[in-house]
């Protein structure tokens, strides 16, 4: 199994400044649940996003308008992984464009993709179905998990993640 995610620390909507981004907190709960049974690949942008919320929002809007594909650092070998947890925040009503960079770069045929996300009120924003449509050769589980950014650092959020993983059969 592989846990891949994008998360941005800094000033987050409703959470103020964070050293660890909201989605990375949720990814940490998943990693804790599986321990050494899951590999982790964090999507780190080549050009980091600014810590300031408003400045980051402007860049996210521009990337969305331009259908940009921001580069990320490193590579991951998907051949050893049949199941991939994919995490991201919702920015401007959809996953950040760096998620599309990742999805465009690799072949997901025959893989099981399990999305999860954080948000500021938009839930999954239709992203699970959009990923399923984009990765038509993969098995995308649309029973993903969307957690409000203001809730990720609570004990109940950790319990929600664990319950979700059990519901998925893990």
Give a verbal description of the structure.
The protein has 170 residues and is of the alpha/beta class. 33% of the residues lie in helices and 21% in strands. The chain has helices at residues 22-34, 53-65, 97-105, 127-134, 155-167; strands at residues 2-5, 10-12, 16-18, 39-42, 83-89, 112-119, 139-140, 145-148. The strands form two sheets. Strands 1, 4, 5, 6, 7 and 8 form a six-stranded parallel beta sheet that branches. Strands 2-3 form a two-stranded antiparallel ribbon. A hairpin with a 3-residue loop joins strand 2 and strand 3. Helix 1 crosses helix 5.
Fraction in helix: 25-40%
Helix and strand element order = EEEHEHEHEHEEH
- Tell me the total number of β-strands: 8
Q: Average pLDDT value?
A: 95
What percentage of the residues does DSSP assign to strands (E)? 15-25%
Number of helices: 5
The end-to-end span amounts to 11 Å
Overall shape: globular
Q: Report the structural category.
A: alpha/beta
**Largest sheet report:** 6 strands, parallel
Contiguous low-pLDDT stretches (5 residues minimum) are none
* Rg calc: 15 Å
Gist?
The protein has five helices and eight strands, in the order E-E-E-H-E-H-E-H-E-H-E-E-H. The protein has 170 residues and is of the alpha/beta class. It starts with a strand and ends with a helix.
């Amino acid at each position: 199994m592989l846990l891949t995610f994008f998360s941005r620390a800094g000033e987050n909507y409703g959470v103020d400044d964070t050293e660890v981004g909201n989605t990375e907190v949720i990814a940490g709960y998943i990693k804790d649940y599986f321990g050494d049974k899951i590999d982790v690949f964090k999507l780190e942008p080549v050009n980091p996003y600014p810590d300031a919320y408003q400045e980051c929002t402007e860049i996210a809007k521009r990337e969305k308008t331009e259908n940009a594909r921001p580069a990320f650092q490193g590579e991951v070998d998907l051949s050893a992984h049949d199941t991939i947890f994919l995490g991201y925040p919702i920015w401007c009503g959809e996953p950040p464009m760096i998620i599309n960079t990742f999805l465009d770069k690799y072949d997901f045929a025959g893989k099981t993709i399990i999305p999860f996300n954080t948000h500021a009120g938009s839930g999954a924003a239709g992203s699970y179905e959009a990923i399923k449509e984009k990765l038509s050769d993969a098995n995308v589980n649309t029973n993903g998990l969307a957690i409000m950014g203001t809730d990720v650092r609570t004990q109940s959020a950790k319990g929600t993640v664990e319950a979700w993983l059990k519901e998925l059969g893990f």
